[in-house]
Every structure is written in C-alpha cells, then in structure tokens.
Write a structure and sequence with these properties.
The protein is of the alpha/beta class. The chain has seven helices and seven strands; from the N terminus they run βαβαβαβααβαβαβ. It is 33% helix and 14% strand.
Length: 187
C-alpha cells in the first residue's frame, strides 16, 4: 500500500500510474496533525525582537529559500535574485519585522556550485549577517511547525513548504520563475 496526504494524490495515481490507484490509501499528512491537536502558542526564543515594547505589532516573517537556483529540472529557487535585497529589507525594518530565514539544507552547496558564493564559508557569513540582526535568526534542521504556528507570514519558493504552510492559514508570498512547471497537485 502507498499512503498519501490527499484525495488529489489518489486521483493522480489513477491518472498517471500504470497500477492505477488500487494500492493508494488517503491517510492525511501526519506531520501537520499538530496544527489540530497541540494548542501551545507561546514559544519564547523563536523570534528576536529589536524593540520588545513593540512586540505585539511586529510582523513575524519566515523566509524559506529553495536550493534550486540553477537551470536544473526543479528550477524553483529565486535566492540568487533577491538574497541581498531581502536581507537589506530585514535590516531596514528592524522595528516592525522579525525574521527567521530557513534555507533549504542543500542551498549552501548549490550557491557554491552556481558561483553565487565563493565557498561554503562565504554562505555561512551571509547567514551570520542574518543572525547578527536584532530582529532575525537562522533556523536549520529540526522541526519547523512551531515557526509556522507563531509566524504571521512566509516568503518562499519551496513547493513542499507551499503545501505545508497552507495548514497555518496565514498569508504567503510564493516567488515563481518562468521556467517552473507544476503537476496537477501543484496547480
């Protein structure tokens, strides 16, 4: 049996698989169940604030860049086009925004491969610039559901986060490229 998240996956199996959907069961997306079962909303330390007196009005934004900045098949990434500007925006709006950058685990290597950064240390310096801001931090590895739950919005070009952040019922800015394509589920 193959367990999938939604009825559309079963429809896609029926449409595209040589086996059809006879071995597909809709099971939901277990990782996202915590949005419905865990009600804890106070997560101290997740969000750095430059002005603690203004905490209630500060917008908490996740920036989640994908690794596929090259001309490869996936071709979703926009990091190479905006990484300087988005960091500058976070710096310029330190009293009204709080940021967590959550780069895809393969972004570091892809940036070096594509020549965006000379080496991994230069990429790490870029992340350190985020970490040095009074209103930003870097999140790498581990679970991210608490970030989703406590954020106000997400800027992303990652298709997996595109589907997962829907569970948060919050605004997102999905950055696209002309070259990317979607299957039925993506549309």
């Amino acid at each position: 049996k193959i367990f999938c998240e939604s009825p559309i996956h079963k429809e896609m199996a029926r449409k595209y698989s040589d086996l059809g959907d006879s071995n597909v069961e809709v099971s939901g997306y277990v990782k996202m169940d915590s949005f419905y079962t865990d009600t804890k909303t106070d997560f101290p330390g997740l969000w750095k604030m430059a002005n603690a007196d203004n905490r209630a009005s500060v917008k908490k934004i996740i920036y989640a860049p994908h690794y596929s900045i090259g001309k490869g098949f996936a071709g979703f990434g926009n990091f190479d086009k905006i990484y300087r500007e988005i960091l500058a925006f976070a710096k310029d709006h330190k009293d009204t925004t709080s940021w967590v950058i959550r780069p895809h685990p393969m972004l570091r290597a892809e940036c070096v491969l594509e020549g965006l950064f000379q080496d991994e240390e230069e990429f790490d310096d870029y992340l350190r610039q985020w970490e040095d801001l009074p209103n930003a931090s870097v999140s790498q590895g581990g679970m991210y559901i608490d970030l989703f739950r406590t954020s106000d919005a997400m800027i992303l070009d990652s298709v997996s986060f595109l589907a997962e952040y829907l569970y948060a019922h919050k605004p997102m800015l999905f950055l696209t490229r002309d070259s990317q394509t979607f299957n039925d589920f993506g549309h």
